[in-house]
Design a protein that fits this description.
The protein is of the alpha/beta class. Helix 1 packs across helix 6, helix 5 crosses helix 9 and helix 7 packs across helix 9. The mean pLDDT is about 95. The structure holds nicotinamide-adenine-dinucleotide.
């Protein structure tokens, strides 16, 4: 069985990857628990506490065939104020360390998380060939990953280094992210606790909300592809734009507890992203990816999970 190391494996996307793929691959999750929680992982998933910035910690994971690098400082606000230096060091150092470590281990591919944030307010649909100017430090690190991947692959072409510009990912296991979680999770927690969700501006801004299962699907297809790709970068999304108002309406219907979202003047005055949806033709064509989870179903599932957690008494009341 092929062995796959998932850095950031106890985090939101990483834990979903491990849990969904534990039968297909021998997966090992490495996480320094900056934000992740080992409780996100199924009991039979191997977990090692350690940092992707550290070769000795990576060595603890053994010989691997593939690395999915999801560790890092995972959202723009984490780079504010005191987070600035650590955010950069953590993200860039972890990727450089993982690349070199994986190559020396003889890994076939490193997959890594880039982000749709680097498109800013580019024309829609967002396309991999558009020129991009990252609008915040977080997106700068992801753009740096893409350049690092290209240069590294030029020198060491035997190991593919494939990037994924994730759109707005939602799904289970986001609780540890708290205030950094996706809007769908944040709103779910608000409705469930009978707190009023806050919508910035008129709520007509759109995002390409992508269920984490589809993100895992894309990553898995890239591992399984029996063809060298070099240092390609793929959008991964649904190709559909959904407004924040539509999300609020869907959740109001699902919770049906009389709570209604309120609109406030948008406090983000600069570079606020007004619209987002991906052109996904490249990933469809090259990897055979196809989004499978309809937003209505993904939301229903998320609400149901929350209900079950409350019944079992496992949901935290101090999320934000
Ligand atoms: N969630 C999204 O919508 C989205 C969108 C675009 C890109 N991404 C990227 O995808 C990746 C995963 O995102 P996520 O939403 O699962 O975030 P997350 O914060 O839940 O996961 C990141 C994990 O990495 C761990 N980590 C951080 N630094 C580490 C280090 N040096 N060594 C080991 N572990 C470390 C954290 O503890 C956390 O568990 C991130 O790189 C993020 O930037 C996410």
């Amino acid at each position: 069985m092929e062995r796959v190391l998932v850095t950031g494996g106890a985090g939101f996307i990483g834990s979903n990857f491990c849990n969904l793929n534990k039968e297909k691959f021998s997966v090992v999750a490495l996480d320094n628990l900056f934000l992740g929680d080992p409780a996100n992982l199924d009991e039979d998933v191997e977990f090692i506490e350690g940092s992707a910035n550290n070769k000795e910690d990576l060595d603890k994971t053994g010989d691997v065939n593939y690395v999915v690098h999801l560790a890092g400082t995972s959202s723009a606000p984490m780079f504010m104020d005191d987070g600035f230096v650590d955010g950069y060091v953590n993200s860039i150092q972890s990727f450089a360390t993982v690349l070199d470590w994986a190559r020396k281990k003889g890994a076939k591919k490193v997959l890594y998380a880039s982000t749709s944030s680097l498109y800013g307010n580019n024309p829609l649909p967002l396309l991999e060939t558009q020129s991009v100017t990252p609008i915040n430090h977080y997106a700068v690190t992801k753009r740096a990953y893409e350049h690092m991947a290209r240069c590294y692959n030029k020198v060491y072409p035997n190991m593919d280094i494939i990037g994924f510009r994730f759109m707005s990912v939602y799904g289970p296991n986001e609780e540890a992210k708290g205030k950094f979680a996706n809007l769908i999770s944040q709103f779910c927690w608000d409705y469930a606790r009978e707190r009023v969700p806050v919508i910035y501006g008129d709520g007509e801004q759109t995002r390409d909300f992508t269920n984490v299962r589809d993100v895992v699907q894309g990553l898995t297809k890239a591992i399984e592809l029996d063809k060298q790709l070099g240092a390609e970068v793929f959008n991964i999304g649904t190709g559909r734009a959904t407004s924040v108002n539509e999300i609020a309406e869907a959740l109001e219907k699902a919770f049906d507890n009389g709570i209604k979202a309120k609109h406030i003047e948008n406090p983000v005055k600069e570079d606020y992203v007004e619209g987002q949806y991906a052109d996904i033709s490249k990933i469809k064509e090259v990897l055979g990816y196809e989004p499978t989870v309809k937003l209505e179903d993904g939301i229903k599932e998320q609400v149901e999970n929350l209900r079950m957690e409350r019944i079992r008494g496992t949901s935290s009341d101090e999320l934000r």
